[in-house]
Specification:
The chain is mostly helical. The chain is built from three helices and no strands.
Length: about 80
């Protein structure tokens, strides 16, 4: 009873313009430590990357997503302080 990943995502893509492969061919990554301070490092890395790609005007939107993803990853990966 498996599901087809792309088929599941198709409703999310409805109404979006088609992807231009040349616009998404670049990627960037960085290693972050398992500390909550990594969220700030992720934002700094994102700002530098977007500046380098000449799309700094998208920083606020992208930064929100990056901050949420890194925060959630840390929240669920680090041991609780109980």
């Amino acid at each position: 009873m498996g599901t087809n990943g792309p088929a599941m995502l198709e409703p999310l893509r409805q109404g979006l313009p088609p992807l231009d492969p040349s616009a998404v061919s670049s990627s960037a990554s960085c290693a972050l430590p398992a500390r909550y301070e990594a969220v700030g490092s992720a934002r700094n890395f994102t700002r530098g990357t977007l500046d380098g790609w000449d799309v700094a005007e998208r920083f606020d939107d992208v930064c929100l997503v990056v901050s949420e993803l890194v925060t959630n990853a840390l929240r669920h990966a680090l041991p609780s302080d109980t």
